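Shift notes (night). Ran KASH domain-containing protein while the centrifuge was going.
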Amino acid sequence: MLNHQLPSLQAKLQFLQAKDDEAKRIRIHVARISQPSIETLAEQLNHIYVLVKERLDNLSKVEKQEKEMIIKMELEKLRTEPYDEEKLIKVEEQLQQLPVEDENTQILAIEVQKLRADKIERDAVKKEIEIKLAELLNRMNVIRTNLSAIMEEKESEKGRTKKNKKALTDIDEQINAFESALNETFDEILPIPTSAMENITEHGLKENLLKKADIIKNKIKNLLVPLEKDMKKEQELMQNVHEILSTITSIGDDVIGVDSINEPSQQLISIGELTENLRKLKGKVEKLEGKLHNSEGMVKRALINDDLYDRVVQLQNALDDKKEKLTDRAKLYSTTAEINLINENVQHYINEMEQIPLQTVEEQNNALSELEGKKHQLENLLENIPMNDDGNKLREDGNRLLAQLNDILKRLADAVGEKLAALASFNAIRDEIEIQLSSLQSMPVLISDEITLSELEHQLCDINTGVQKLLKLKEKISHVGVSECDREQCDERKDLLSRIDGVLERAQKDHDYFDKKRAQLLAHERISVDCKTLHSELVEWIKNGQELLDDSEALPESYDSVSKKFDTLSEKIFDLRKNKPNIEQSLVFGQLCELIDKGKDLQLELSKRALMWENFVKERDSAVEELNDIRRQICEIEGRGVRRFDKMLDDLEALKDGVPRRIAVTCKKFLKAFVSVLLILPFGFKQALYLRWSFLADLPSRLLSLCSQLHPLACARREGEAFVEEASELEKKIENLLDSMSAEFRVREEIMHSLLVISDELGDIRNAFDNQNISASLQKKLEQKLEGIGAHLKTLDEDITKYNANRIFLNEEEDITTKRNFEQLEEIEERLKRLQLTDTEEYDIDAAAEVLAAIYPNDYPRDVLREQGIPFDDDLYDLSPSSATSDDDDVSKFETPNDEVCFMI
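Came back to this:
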């Protein structure tokens, strides 16, 4: 339009200007009055050019702002979403469409560069973390591979002599040092150093590392949950900003589209709608800017350069300006038409008076009255003419017409006399007052419930306008000359003044009534907005609260904080109800009350969940502390080395301070009963004793109960399961401790029993040939028997050596040894060699016993020998299996008892 239509119009206008100048030179008798001049058309064309250019500039500015906002939103998405090179390139292309020298464009360019740098840095950090995690997994695999060999080496070290205790202590110190290094590593999530990895000598270290890594991951996830919620809220807020900007842009286009030159009546209707929309939008913008300035949460908000509130105010000002111009133009159109009509009437009277002069007084009086009315009407019209160029021109024309009218009235007044002139003036003012009184009295007093605020303000404006006109007429009729009028006109003037005062009083009451209703509408609108805002916040709170209860990965600390937010909302609603009693009649407030009842139930659930979590934390910390105390005391007992039996009982007594009294008492009773049973067991008893402890089974019961009440909270379940696993490991450790103690006691008693049996057998052999001569066959048998005892003693000596090497808890006051038994064996062998043999051959008792056993399989061999008269020595020959041999040859006596064998106290 600027490049094509306007230049063409300007060229045509220049052509018309040249023609008009030429016509002026040849025009002598004809005057152009009604047609607009070329200068007026030029001014209108220039005005159109300015308006079009202004609108194009505004459109360009709005388009630029929209592009900037789109780029900002794309950048916001790129900050939160995975890196996308294509989207970033697209944003850079959009950025190139904006002016380079613009400050906002430069800021956006810096943000794009920063985003690219942040993405590159973040990818590098992510890659570095992945590499470190891969190294950590590889290191843990190596640890797992080498751990078995290291532990076997430790067990081998424990099987050596007491001189190696210092080496074992060094190994334990290395384990503790490595565990400390691991704890520091867990805090930083760094790869384990190779030097520390090589010193691992504790089984299950990888499992503990993975558990703690899972805990750290869960903590990170718990931090991500509120971050994601804040990001969601921020995205919704940015979406609201975008919608507000779109609405502002749309209304701005409509404001620009209002043409103050064309027909104003239809344009004023559009302006009324736009004014109402802007008023509602202004309230939304105020609340939105309040949220933008009150930054909360973990997301740093990008700066928004656009001042939304100022833009709305600018649109309101622009709309008010156009409304004022359109109103002035509408007034100008109507006033021009009325002045033209008055002008025609005046010209008509002038023409008639020139052609046919008024003859009678009545005709002159009627003309005077009518022209006096036209005069007052013209004066009122001149007062309402807008103060602008077009209005000034019309005012000049009106003043000329008024001067002409005053001149005619003066001539008529001179013709009819002062009395009739005063009467005519009075009648004209009276008629005008009657019209104005009728207009004010016809205004509606009652207001419908559907009336809008703009309609109410329009009625108030009409009342004010009517009152101002009536006050001016009152002033006129008060100063009108009545000295020449009759008494009837004087009374009529008083009556008019009284009626005017009555109408003014009523108008003031109506104005107060309308103003009160306006204030009520404003208050109701504000209340409705507040109720809707609280309703939206409460709906959002209920939604978030229910999602929090159903979220298995929720942050437990959020239960209490979210619950307290409801108290804040309740206080706002209570204050609103307290300050605005009439709010209860509002439909929105009724809906709000229904939500409050629902919110109270939800708050109760959140409070219960928060209390359960608090109890869970207390129970967990107490249980963990108890487990750590038990574990510490057990480690102290294990680390003290060998000790006397009474010292072992003291160690178990010390467990009373760290474990429940029932556990400590049970432990002590078990040991005392165990020793007592060992002392009274028969020598042939080979059944192993085993005690399975279950006293830790009920320790995590309350914790697991709270875990079930906190369902579906996953972190509580994980912590409960981890605690149960730790308690199970501790129980197993106690079982292993008692197994080791019982095995050590059992092996010692079996060795002592075997030594006692061998000593008794050697005594029986010595008594069998004490100071007696024996046969050669008996000597041979005794030598064979002594040879078997010697072999048994050698085996028993190896068992004693193994027992001494594997002892962990008990320290013998006197060493257990086979030296005395070997000395007895050597003594008996020497004496047996020095004995003289007899010539009498004795019965081969063994051969006879085998023959008789074959002949009499169901009879006892001793009874058969007696019946056949074969002599034998009951003390010398024991035909039953040796209990010592049967006991001592049991190779499984050093094995740990299986789980199925239990000893109940």
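The chain has a mean pLDDT of 69. Residues 616-681+691-744 form one domain.
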